[in-house]
Amino acid sequence: EWESAEEYCEKVLDKEAKNALAYVGKLMVHPDFQRRGLGSKLLLAVENVYPGQRYELFTSTMSAGNIALYQRNGYRIFNEKQIKAEGFIAANMVADGNLSYATITLADKNSLGLGSEHFDTAIDVVRARLGTEIAFVLKELEGGKYRVSLRSTGFNVARVAESLSGGGHVRAAGCTVTAQTPEEAIDIVKQAIAKG
């Protein structure tokens, strides 16, 4: 039996969690059902559960259809630096079989005029690549150090992070490595992944 978007949202959203700001984490419509107004109905249903709130959501600049949907429903772009960072990651990520990764150097951040906070979602962009089972992002820090974020669909990345003096969970982990170059840091992480 089908239920309305409003009925579904009433059931799954926590109406007691009232804030001045509501974040829409993910809004998804199966490809077979897109272009039928369902995305707009879902947005409206969320807004009806939390009336009078300010809503924020995130989508990549590569999602032109999503941006158009949100703009048709009264949303506007307010943080293009985040979008610029995601575009950089998408354009520069490397796909190597079931492994995908990206590197953000200090020089990259400086040339783009972006701070580290603008790359907080970089790992999400990398792991979203079709066929990716293991994803990692290296963010260069001062002093030849690289902060590593690891994600997987099942491979134990905690074991990888632990082997590099980090930690985490089976599907989400992190560590810091020391290397002379980004390429050396990539090799260190890839070798740790290969050892499993």
Backbone structural class:
alpha/beta
What gap, in angstroms, lies between the N and C termini?
45 Å
Strand order of the largest sheet: 3-4-5-6-8-7
Low-pLDDT parts are none
How large is the count of helical segments?
A: 8
Helical residue percent? Answer: 25-40%
The radius of gyration is: 19 Å
Q: Let me know the largest β-sheet.
A: 6 strands, mixed
Per DSSP E runs of 2 or more residues, the count of β-strands stands at 8
How large is the share of residues in beta strands? 15-25%
What's the overall average pLDDT, rounded? 86
Instruction: Report the order of strands and helices.
Output: HEHEHHEEHHEEHEEH
Shape: elongated
Account of the protein in words:
- The radius of gyration is 19 Å and the shape is elongated.
- The longest helix is centred in the C-terminal third of the chain and has 14 residues, at 182-195.
- It has helices at residues 5-12, 38-49, 64-72, 80-92, 106-112, 122-127, 157-163, 182-195; strands at 21-24, 54-57, 94-96, 99-104, 134-140, 145-152, 167-168, 172-178.
- A six-stranded mixed β-sheet has the order 3-4-5-6-8-7. Strands 1-2 form a two-stranded parallel sheet.
- 26% of the residues are buried.
- It contains eight helices and eight strands, in the order αβαβααββααββαββα.
Task: Briefly summarize what is shown.
Helix content is 39%, strand content 21%. It is built from 8 helices and 8 strands. The protein is elongated and about 50 Å long.
Question: Could you give the topology of this structure?
Answer:
Elements: H1 5-12, E1 21-24, H2 38-49, E2 54-57, H3 64-72, H4 80-92, E3 94-96, E4 99-104, H5 106-112, H6 122-127, E5 134-140, E6 145-152, H7 157-163, E7 167-168, E8 172-178, H8 182-195
Parallel strand pairs: 1-2, 4-5
Antiparallel strand pairs: 3-4, 5-6, 6-8, 7-8
